[in-house]
Write a structure and sequence with these properties.
With about 300 residues, this protein is mainly alpha-helical. The chain has two domains: about 1-165, Tetracycline Repressor, domain 2 (Orthogonal Bundle), CATH 1.10.357; about 170-300, Four Helix Bundle (Hemerythrin (Met), subunit A), CATH 1.20.120.1780. Helix content is about 75%, strand content about 0%. The protein is built from twelve helices and no strands. The protein is globular, with a radius of gyration of 19 Å. The protein starts with a helix and ends in a 6-residue tail after the last helix. The relative contact order is 0.12.
Length: about 300
């Protein structure tokens, strides 16, 4: 893979961007497509800011990656640190310009609330520029920051076109937050050696791989419980949702059993990938509910 593409981690960027778009679909349904110019800008801006976070993380983590993953573009010499920094700044500029453009378009055409996209872009910029040099050094704070970024995608999608809270996308956001939080905690097992060498304190360096696996599994379990109960009991989700969410629930359950029984780094890398695909299939389930749920009606009550 081209190093400039690899450093952006395209699948991760796609997932984070889709959190916002799926949040819009769940909130707006078929009305989503009236805002197609904004959707294009959201895709561009979401991708750019997500990619900037990945690039700057690799820029600040170069010493750790020389130990944990020397094949990455910067430690392998395919991209210089200066080039990565410039690339990250360009992506931040693109993301913020997209945010400004969305707000201007929505205000001019639909008279929607001005400022949601701009404020979101600014918050994301602050988070992605402070994550690795500051927040990541404090274990849970760094894990929370990444997971809050996932939750913010759904919150943004819920607010951007009508500035009102819809319980269904927020219920889905909670499940996505917990699933990603567990993944971030579990990833610390992979990075134990490099983190200890560079003085970075994580749950894995502080408590070891076994307890880290238990904590990650608890977070996965909360994600499973929340995605099975809250959307159905409190947000009127339909049988479409229950059927489609069963696949990621099974994958998350497999991940719990696997990581509790085996904390070797190759295994954790595989589980990390499984959780990414679990998040992707969850987004598919949320999208199906957005467009088919009303046709079927709520699973419980009216």
């Amino acid at each position: 893979m081209n190093p400039w593409i690899r450093i952006m981690r395209p699948f991760n960027c796609f997932l984070i961007t889709m959190c916002a778009i799926v949040g819009i679909m769940v909130d707006q349904g078929i009305k989503t497509f009236k805002h197609w110019p904004s959707l294009i800008l959201i895709a561009i801006g979401g991708w750019a800011l997500s990619a900037a976070a990945m690039v700057l993380n690799d820029f600040f983590d170069v010493d750790i990656d020389r130990i944990n993953d020397p094949s990455r573009p910067i430690p392998s010499g395919q991209i210089t640190p200066k080039q990565a920094m410039i690339f990250g700044i360009v992506l931040i500029v693109i993301g913020n310009l997209a945010g400004i453009s969305i707000d201007v378009y929505e205000w001019l055409v639909f008279k929607n609330q001005f400022g949601v996209s701009i404020v979101t872009a600014i918050i994301c910029t602050v988070m992605l520029t402070t994550y690795t040099p500051y927040m990541k050094k404090y274990s849970v704070l760094g894990n929370l920051a990444v997971s809050v970024g996932v939750w913010m995608g759904f919150l943004y999608g819920d607010l951007v076109f009508d500035f009102s809270i819809n319980p269904l996308p927020e219920a889905m956001a909670l499940a996505a937050f917990m699933l990603n939080f567990g993944r971030e905690v579990m990833k610390g097992i992979i990075d134990i050696e490099g983190d200890r060498e560079n003085g970075v304190t994580t749950i894995a360096t502080a408590f070891g791989d076994k307890l880290t696996a238990i904590i990650a599994s608890i977070l996965y379990f909360i994600a499973i419980a929340s995605c099975l109960t809250i959307p159905i009991l409190l947000a009127n989700a339909s049988v479409v949702y229950l059927g489609s969410i069963s696949v990621p629930v099974i994958l998350a359950t497999i991940s719990i059993v696997w990581v509790l029984s085996d904390q070797r780094i190759p295994t954790v890398r595989k589980i990390k990938t499984i959780i990414l695909y679990t998040m992707f299939i969850s987004l598919v389930a949320f999208t199906l509910e957005a467009f088919l749920g009303d046709l079927v009606g709520p699973l419980i009550g009216n």
